[in-house]
Write a structure and sequence with these properties.
Length: 575
């Protein structure tokens, strides 16, 4: 029971508990509420498309393989129960609630396990350069990273790829600090696994690892004396990892599809979502926003600990040059990801700053240990007060994430619908699956949109139609359900290019350009149609901190009802 007495074990237990709230979030259901998540719907599709000649999927397939193996009992049973093995019948069977719920739970548990694994790896890499106590503080800091708490329980690929990336950085650190090239094999393979999980992982290593090697050869005599085995080992395993990556990614078996995916990722997938202008004015605005977004991860005061931790580590240059260089790798990974990904993609959503926040925990741990055990009484007392205050507020932020999962506004919307919608009532819905509540049995639900039917993710017992939103008079539903996040672009009136280097995303510009749809939704919300806002489901944070950093968490849902007594054919006011 040695592990039972380990402080690290209990830190990991607390982290695991914080990641339990989202495991059954929005379930049972035929789809999940994880915006941009790969389960329950996309992982099997993604795996098939990766290797289908000429086809491609947005994300690489490694995590899809893992989920397919772990969920095999579910999809095998679905195949046996499908009336036939054609695509239509298989999809109709597999999107039923029991299968989808099973897939979602398995995928979320895997995310939680890998998130806790990331915390463990951060502890070990900090221990390597700062000692065991620093490792414990770093683990605690990482466990209390609010954004990692969120991404540690949803099915987005950001958490899993970060686990592999952290494992790789730890391997490179061990190779340098311990003068042991054999660690490079696992570091290279873990880097390949990270990129094979989500392509943007390349940015963690692109600049950071080469600069670390350059610093190692410059400052430490040992690699220069053993240059041949060091360089040959690094090149050999980098080559093996690269070939393995190409094989897993489908570049060898499906080169046309692989080429199309790379073109998509470097083209529309990046350019259509850019938030900043592609110049230095835009990148300076990006850096300012990175600073302003820091409280999404840790309390603002934690940046002082991180800066102090980097300074403390810099002093180790005199003690052990190899460990000094190894300890620079997390900082180099932060810089590398910022330059090679954020500056290229021009985006600062929370998940795109997650790597920086996680690797920063190394230096927070080094600083916290130094202050907590300082020899001077007043430094120690003040340092302990600061560290404990930051930890307490961090726990409060993480608990706020848990509260938001448990009090999702869609639960309230579902309660209202179950109370007010009678059997046979017509309900019109818009938006993607991830933004919608579940609907009561017996309701006649129709999703209206202009996206082709083949491009949609179907929902059981929901009729999909392609019509203009503004043709509401021809449909005359009794209820309308609208997600605030989805409809926001149609309601905005100011479409001018933002100042200070920012840009409006092209995908949002397209929605602004749909004048008829914009006029319809503005008329609906202004009360100029024969519908009233019957209920508004809003997240009330109460004691907990407000949230605005996650697209599918704590989002408002609007429920409209046709005004009783209004002629069903009447249209009030111009659209």
């Amino acid at each position: 029971m040695r592990w039972f007495r380990s402080p690290l074990f209990w830190i990991l237990v607390v982290a695991a508990v914080l990641r339990m709230a989202g495991i059954f979030w929005g379930l049972p259901a035929s789809d999940g509420w994880d915006d941009d998540g790969v389960a329950p719907r996309n992982f099997l599709t993604g795996l098939a498309l990766t290797y289908a000649p000429g086809s491609f999927f947005t994300y690489p397939p490694l995590h899809m393989f893992l989920l397919a193996i772990l969920t095999a009992p579910g999809w095998i049973i679905a195949l046996f129960n499908a009336p036939a093995l054609n695509q239509h019948d298989v999809i109709a069977e597999i999107i039923q609630v029991p299968y989808m719920t099973f897939f979602a739970v398995v995928a979320r548990v895997v995310s939680a396990v890998m998130s806790v694994g990331t915390i463990y790896v951060i502890a070990r890499m900090t221990e390597l350069v700062g000692g065991r106590r620093a490792g414990l503080f770093a683990a605690a800091a990482c466990a209390l990273n609010a954004a990692l708490t969120y991404y540690g329980q949803v099915t987005n690929l950001d958490g899993p790829y970060l686990f592999w990336a952290a494992l790789s950085v730890w391997g490179w650190m061990r190779a340098i600090a311990e003068h042991e090239p054999r660690h490079m094999r696992w570091a290279a393979l873990a880097a390949a696994a990270a990129v094979a999980t989500k392509d943007q992982a390349y940015a963690v290593f692109l600049i950071g690892v080469p600069f670390a090697f350059l610093a190692w050869f410059t400052l430490d005599r040992w690699p220069r004396q053993n240059a041949r085995p060091v360089v040959m080992t690094a090149l050999l395993w980098a080559g093996v990892a690269f070939i393995a990556l190409l094989a897993v990614d489908g570049a060898i078996t499906n080169p046309a599809g692989f080429a199309e995916r790379i073109a998509f990722l470097t083209g529309p997938a990046s350019l259509n979502y850019a938030q900043y202008q592609d110049d230095w004015t835009g990148r300076l605005s990006l850096l300012r926003d990175m600073w302003e977004h820091f409280p999404r991860f840790y309390p603002s005061a934690a940046i002082l600990l991180a800066a102090f931790g980097i300074s403390v580590h810099a002093l180790r240059l005199r003690e052990d040059r190899a460990r000094f260089v190894a300890g620079l790798l997390p900082l180099l990974a932060i810089i590398s990801f910022t330059v090679a990904f954020n500056f290229a993609a021009l985006r600062t959503e929370t998940r795109f700053l997650l790597p920086q926040s996680v690797f920063l925990a190394v230096y927070i741990g080094i600083a916290a240990e130094k202050l907590f055990f300082a020899p001077q009484f007043w430094v120690k007392a003040g340092g302990r007060g600061l560290v404990l205050a930051i930890a307490a507020f961090s726990f409060y932020q993480c608990a706020g994430i848990v509260a938001a999962f448990l009090a999702d506004p869609r639960y309230d919307a579902e309660h209202w619908l179950n109370t007010n919608v009678r059997k046979g009532d017509t309900v019109e819905i818009y938006s993607l699956n991830v933004y919608l509540p579940r609907f009561p049995e017996g309701a006649v639900v129709t999703r209206v949109g202009q996206k082709p039917l083949k491009a949609r993710n179907p929902l059981p017992n929901v009729t999909e139609i392609v019509q203009p939103y503004e043709a509401i008079a021809t449909r005359q539903p009794r209820f309308i359900v609208v997600s605030a996040f989805w409809v926001r672009d149609y309601l905005e009136t100011n479409t001018a290019t933002p100042v200070r280097g920012r840009a409006i995303q092209k995908v949002r510009q397209a929605e602004h350009g749909n004048a008829a749809a914009c006029a319809y939704f503005r008329a609906l919300f202004d009360g100029r149609l024969p519908y009233r806002l019957a209920h508004k489901s809003v997240y009330s944070s109460g004691f907990w901190p407000p949230l605005n950093a996650y697209e599918s968490l704590a989002q408002t849902t609007f429920l409209f009802e046709r005004i009783p007594g209004e002629p069903r054919h009447k249209r009030q006011g111009p659209l």
